[in-house]
Structure to design on (224 residues):
C-alpha cells in the first residue's frame, strides 16, 4: 500500500513508548505515585502509529483511552514496567520513555490493610531500578529517547541524564512553568541531542509536541 514519503523512515520500525505514573504499594489499598497523567506518552504512541511504526505502549495506570493502532501493555509498578520494557528491548528500534517512573518504593508491602494506632509512623523506602539506565547500558543499536522532568537547572540536569543513561536524545520539560509538564493538555519541551544539537518545541498541545518530537528524531532513524 501507499506510504507517504515523509513517513518512510518510520514504516515498520518497532517503537516502544512508556507513559504514565507507576504505583508503588504499601498495603492492599494504599500506594505512592506521582501526578503524571500519561497524556504525553499516549500522544507520542498515537502519532508514531499514524506514521506507520509498530507501536507498543507500556503504560502505568491512566484513565486515557487506548490510542488507535497501538499495542497496549498495562503495568502498575516500576518493577512491572522494567520487566515489560526489558523483555521487548532486543526487538525494539526506538524507545521513548515518557513515563514518570517512581524512584523509590516502600521497602515492605503489607499483605493486610495497615491499621492506625496512636503516634506517627515512618515508611522505609528503597530505590527502584532505573529502567532507562539499564537500557542505555545494554544498547545494541536502539535509539533511546528519555524525558527529564525538572523544576530547576533544567539544561544542566537534562544534559547530565544523557551521559548517565547513554541516551541519544532527552526531552526536557519544566514541571513548574505554567502550561507545561504533568497533567495538562499542553507542553513545552527542549530537546538535547547527544551530539550537542538542541531544538525547542514551544508551548503547544501535547499531540502537536509529540508530532514535533518525532519529526526532530526522524533523521536519527536513518541506518536503524
Ligand atoms: N526513568 C526510568 N526508570 C526509573 C526512573 C526514571 O526509566 N526508575 C526514566 C524516565 O522514564 C525518564 C528518565 O529516566 O525518561 C528521566 O527521569 P527523571 O525522573 O527526570 O530523572 P531521574 O534519573 O529519575 O533523576 P531525578 O528524578 O533525580 O531527577
Ligand atoms: Ca525520577
Amino acid at each position: 500500500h501507499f506510504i507517504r514519503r515523509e513517513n518512510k523512515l518510520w514504516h515498520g520500525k518497532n517503537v516502544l513508548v512508556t507513559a504514565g505514573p507507576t504505583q508503588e504499594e504499601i498495603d492492599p489499598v494504599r500506594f505512592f505515585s506521582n501526578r503524571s497523567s500519561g497524556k504525553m506518552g499516549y500522544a507520542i504512541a498515537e502519532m508514531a502509529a499514524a506514521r506507520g511504526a509498530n507501536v507498543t505502549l507500556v503504560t502505568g495506570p491512566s484513565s486515557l483511552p487506548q490510542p488507535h493502532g497501538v499495542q497496549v501493555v498495562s503495568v502498575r509498578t516500576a518493577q512491572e514496567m522494567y520487566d515489560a520494557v526489558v523483555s521487548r528491548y532486543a526487538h525494539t528500534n526506538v524507545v521513548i520513555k515518557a513515563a514518570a517512573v517512581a524512584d523509590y518504593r516502600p521497602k515492605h508491602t503489607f499483605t493486610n490493610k495497615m491499621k492506625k494506632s496512636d503516634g506517627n509512623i515512618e515508611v522505609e523506602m528503597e530505590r527502584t531500578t532505573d529502567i532507562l539506565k539499564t537500557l542505555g547500558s545494554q544498547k545494541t543499536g536502539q535509539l533511546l529517547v528519555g524525558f527529564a522532568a525538572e523544576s530547576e537547572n533544567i539544561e544542566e540536569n537534562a544534559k547530565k541524564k544523557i551521559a548517565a543513561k547513554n541516551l541519544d536524545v532527552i526531552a526536557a520539560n519544566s514541571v513548574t512553568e505554567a502550561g507545561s509538564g504533568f497533567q495538562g493538555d499542553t507542553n513545552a519541551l527542549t530537546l538535547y541531542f547527544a551530539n550537542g544539537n538542541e531544538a525547542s518545541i514551544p508551548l503547544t498541545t501535547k499531540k502537536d509536541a509529540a508530532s514535533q518530537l518525532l519529526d526532530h528524531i526522524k533523521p536519527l532513524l536513518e541506518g536503524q
About this structure: Residues 39-50 form the longest helix (12 residues). The chain has one domain: 5-102+125-221.
